[in-house]
Amino acid sequence: MACGPLCANPCVQCCMNASAPPPPPSLPSPAPGATHSLVSVEVNRSTVEWLLAEFPATDLSNPKPTGRPDVLKVELYQSRDELEQLRDRFPREFGAAAVVAPEGATQRLIDAERARLAERRRVDRETPRAERKAVFFEDFRDYDEIMLYLDLLLAEPAIEVRKVVSGQTREGRDIHTWYFTGSGGLVKPTVYLQGSAHANEWMGTMGCVYALTELIEGYAAGDQEIVQLMDALVFVATPVLNVDGYLHTWTATGRNWRKNRRDNGDGSFGVDLNRNNGPERTWCTAGSSTNPSSNTYCGPSVLSEPEDRSMGELLATIRETQPLITAVDFHTCGSLLLWPWQYSYEQLPLPERTDFEVLGLAQEVAINAVNGGEWQSIQGVDLYPHSGGFIDFVWEEHGVLGYTYEGSSILGGCHVQPPEAILPSSAEQYAGVLEAARWAMRDIPPEK
After folding, report:
1. Burial class (CB in 10 A: 0-12, 13-18, 19+), 57
2. Cis bond before residue 333 (omega within 30° of 0)
3. What pLDDT, in 10s, does the model give residues 36-53?
4. What CA–CA distance (Å, rounded) separates 6 from 46?
5. Contact 170, 260 (CB under 8 A)
6. 161: nearest Cα among 267, 275, 237
7. d(C-alpha 179, C-alpha 163), whole Å
8. Residue 123 contacts residue 132 (beta carbons within 8 Å)
C-alpha cells in the first residue's frame, strides 16, 4: 500500500497507520547572536531516522508522545548553519510536522550553568557526614566528586560492599562498579543499575547516585522495607559507564557531548553506547547510523566499544553465581519507561511481554505518585525504533527485565536542567527502582 506524504521512508512500519498530515510547517530562524538553538517540533516517527542521517550532529532529545498516531514532540539542538539548512528542507522531507515554538539559545543555559557550577559547594572528605547528601544534591557533580561521594557513601559499616573495576574505557580509564547488600553475603538475586551511557544526560547520572543513596541510608536508618529488600537482594551499580564522555561534558566546549570518545580516524569522535550493544542479529538495523559523525553512530561492529563490552561481561559474571532479575539504565529525558523490543515493532511472546507490561505499569504508578507526574510505560519502539540499545541487549542476551528510564524535566530543559530539579526528578526514579527491587523478590521463598 502507498504511504503517501506522511512518511519520508515508506519502509518504516509506522507508515502503516499514517494519518492525514497537518499544514506544512515553517522553522524559525536561529536566535540572534546564538551559535546553537533549541527548537521544539512535532514530527512523524518515521522521520527521526532521516533527520539523524541527514543532520548527524543533531542532538534530538526529550521525545514525547503527542496522543496522535505516529507523531512525536521532540527538541532539536542544532547549530545556526544546520538550522538554516533544515529550514529549507523541513517541509518537503518531513511531510507532517509542525513547529511548536523556538526555545531560545541553549548556549546561554550552558554558559549560566558553567558559571553557577564554578561557585558550587563541593563534597570532600571534610564535609560532615550528616551534610553530605544535602550538599551533593544541591547541584550537578563532576566525575571526581561522584567517585568520592560514592566511596564515602558505600563505606557505611552496616552494609556489605565490594568495589570492582568492571572494565576500561576507550581512553583507558577504569570503570567502577559497586556490589552492595545488607546482610547474608553478595551471592543473592540481583538488581543492576547503570548511569551515564549518554554523557550529557547529567540528570540520569544524579538519579542513579540518588537511588544508591536512598537504599544505603535507608538501610542504615533501619527502614523496614529497605532492610528487607537489601537483606534479600544484591544491588550492582555502575553509575558512570561512559567515563571519557562524562569527563568531556565538563570541558569548555563539550557540555552536549553524548557518545564515548573513540577516535574514528576521520576527524570525528565517538560511538553511541546505546546503539553499539548486541545482539548481533539486530545491531545497527534501525534508528542507528553508520556515519561516524552521527550522534547515533553504532560503531564499526557490534560491541566494538570497551564500555559496552565491559557491561556485558559484568552481567555475564553476575549470572555465573546468582540470578540477575531486573535492570535499570538511567537517561534523560521524556518521562518514559521503555522496554523491549526497541529495534522492531515485533512484540515479545507471552508471558514475557506480560511481565514487562505489569512491572512497567507498577513503576509508572509508583513514579507518578511522587510528584503527580505523567510518566508512561511503553514498548521502546513505540517511542521510535533503534537497535543496539540496553533494554534489547539485556533481555535477549541475559534474560533480564531491563528498563530505560527517560527521566522527567520537571522544571524545564532536558540535558541542561536547573539544580532545583535534581531531588524531585531523582525521587521519581528511585520510586521506580524500588518497584524493580520488589519484583526481584517475588521468587525468593519466604523464611520459615
Report:
1. middle
2. yes
3. 556 667 777 666 666 766
4. 9
5. yes
6. 237
7. 6
8. yes
Give the mean pLDDT of the chain: 85
Residue pLDDT, tens place only, 54-92: 665 566 666 666 667 667 777 666 666 666 777 666 645
Residues of the chain with CATH 3.30.70: 4-104
- Which three cell numbers, joined as nine digits, stand for 16? 502503516
Q: What are phi and psi of 55, to 5 degrees?
A: -130, 75
> Is the Cβ–Cβ distance between 228 and 219 less than 8 Å?
no
CA distance 71 to 374: 18
Query: What SS3 state is found at 316?
Result: helix
The dihedral region occupied by 409, where left means phi > 0, alpha psi between -120 and 50, and beta the remainder, is beta
Backbone torsions φ then ψ of 362, nearest 5 degrees:
-60, -40
Can you tell me the distance from the alpha carbon of 324 to that of 107, in angstroms, rounded to the nearest whole number? 42
Give me the CATH code for the 129-440 domain, please.
Answer: 3.40.630.10
Per DSSP, 301 falls in state S
Any bridge partners for residue 101, and if so which? 40
CB neighbourhood size of 301 (10 A) = 11
**Facing residues of 23 across strands?**
none
With a CB cutoff of 8 Å and minimum separation 6, the contacts of 251 are none
Residue 164: pLDDT band with limits 50, 70, 90:
very high
Distance, CA of 268 to chain centre: 23
User: Average pLDDT, stretch 384-400?
Assistant: 95
Q: Is 376 helix (H, G, I), strand (E, B) or coil?
A: strand
> Residue 96 is inside which H or E element, if any?
none
Fold of 4-104: Alpha-Beta Plaits (3.30.70)
Q: How far apart are CA 41 and CA 94, in angstroms?
A: 11
* Calpha distance 44→75 (Å, rounded): 13
Q: Is 184 helix (H, G, I), strand (E, B) or coil?
A: coil
pLDDT score of 166: 98
